[in-house]
Amino acid sequence: MKEVIDFTNFKKRNKAYAGANGNKISVIYEGEQYMLKFPAQARLNKDMSYSNSCFSEYLGCQIYESIGIPVQKTLLGTYTVKGKKKIVVACGDFTKPGVTLQDFASLKNQMIDSERNGYGTELSDILYTFEEQTAVDSVILSERFWDMFIVDALIGNWDRHNGNWGFLYDSVSDEMTLAPVFDCGSSLYPQADETIMKAVLEDEGERNHRIYNIPTSAIMKDGKKIRYFDFISSLKNEDCNRALIRILPKIDMERIRVIIRETPFMSELQKQFYETMLSERKARILDFSHKALMNQDIH
Ligand SMILES: Nc1ncnc2c1ncn2[C@@H]1O[C@H](COP(=O)(O)OP(=O)(O)O)[C@@H](O)[C@H]1O
Ligand SMILES: [Mg+2]
Questions:
Q1: Cβ(21) to ligand 1 under 6 A?
Q2: What CATH number is attached to the domain comprising 262?
């Protein structure tokens, strides 16, 4: 089991973080700055007071790391507020003096000939921005986007909007590079409580619904949120196909199982739920599409 850190008494910093999914503070741990994320309210599930978003953040980021995509460092721990111990996820702050985070939305805002705003997630507008912008290499940018699309399909992330990925901007050199991946808090069904987890494990219909239909991507096509299975298995987007070929061999389910097994605080049911959903999503969305793609290339 991984060590569990009590963050309650560490030195605080005045750095503040935005974002709608739960409270955040800044602390120093072992000389490094961390953003502590507290559990978000479970808005869609009235039977649950707080969601499992901290586990989603932790597991999502650990899975990104296991695949080899640069991602924020994450640690699970506790924080006591008014005598009540809460589970928190600490996210290594990857900014530093002179180097700030600029989200993709702000890059998209620079497309001054476009009528749409930076937060619009219509796929064609996003791809247009990749071509038109000159701040970063457009191939590197496109590859990161599609790599994240594939991994987000695996972890069922519904919230990779234009504010949830971006760049590190060096205000002295004017250089911009891709930021590590952050905010995986809306993946892995954060609002599934024990009753839902049980039902999903026992009932194939419930499971299939959560593989093929929900969650959808935050990215839209023709005004509608993309369903991961439909989009990836259609094999219509060449860049998406290439990302599938790049990423799939790097997904090591055994390693992911170990990550889940070693995660503290979770019940056996919760571990079983994550293991099942990840291996099913991999098999039915990614392996299935990859096989279809290989067959298409042969014929
Ligand atoms: N590891 C990090 N280092 C520095 N800034 C971060 C990091 N992760 C997130 N942020 C900033 O904090 C904001 C809120 O974090 P995020 O994880 O997106 O929270 P939420 O789940 O509420 O959207 C982000 O939009 C980003 O600007
Ligand atoms: Mg966010």
A1: yes
A2: 1.10.1070.20
Tell whether ligand 1 has an atom less than 6 A from the beta carbon of residue 38. no
Query: Is 283 a member of any domain?
Result: yes
Residue closest via CA to ligand 1's atom 15 equals 19
On whether residue 62 sits in a domain, the answer given is: yes
The parent domain of residue 187 ranges over 5-96+180-298
Q: Can you give the pLDDT at residue 299? A: 64
The pLDDT value given to residue 155:
98
pLDDT at residue 127 in the model:
97
Q: In this predicted structure, what is the pLDDT of residue 1?
A: 62
> Quick one: pLDDT at residue 139?
98
pTM: 0.97
Q: Is 119 in the pocket of ligand 1 (CB under 6 A)?
A: no
Q: Which residue, by CA, sits nearest to atom 25 of ligand 1?
A: 19
pLDDT tens-digit map of 160-199? 999 999 999 999 999 999 999 999 999 999 999 999 999 9
How many C-beta atoms lie closer than 10 Å to residue 130's C-beta?
20
All residue ranges of the chain with pLDDT < 70 are 1-2, 298-299
Asked whether the beta carbons of 22 and 41 are under 8 A apart, the reply is: yes
Residue 117 domain flag: no
> How many angstroms separate the alpha carbon of residue 223 from the centre of ligand 2?
22
Q: Is residue 253 part of a domain?
A: yes
Q: Which residue's CA lies nearest to atom 6 of ligand 1? A: 93
For the chain, how many structural domains are there in total? 1
The torsion angles phi and psi of 281, rounded to 5 degrees, stand at -65, -40
User: Near ion ligand 2, which residues have CB within 5 Å?
Assistant: 19, 164, 183
Query: Ligand 1 pocket, 95 CB below 6 A?
Result: yes
66 alpha carbon to ligand 2 midpoint, in Å? 22
